[in-house]
Amino acid sequence: MKEIVIGPNDGGQRLDKFLLKSLPALPPALMHKYIRLKRIKRNGKRAQAGDKLETGDVLSLYLNDELLERPAADQAFRRLRPNLRVVYEDDQILLCDKRPGMVVHEDDEGATDTLINHIKAYLFQKGQWDPDQEQSFAPALCNRIDRYTGGIVMAAKTAEALRVLNEKIRLRQVQKYYLCLVHGLPSPKEATISDRLLKDSEKNAVRVVRGAAAQDKNARQAVMRYKVLQSRGGLSLLECQLFTGRTHQIRVQLASRGWPLAGDAKYGVNARNKALGMDHQALYSYQLRFDFQGEPTCLDYLNGRTFRVEEAPFLSVFYNLPKE
Question: What is the pTM of this model?
Answer without folding.
Answer: 0.81
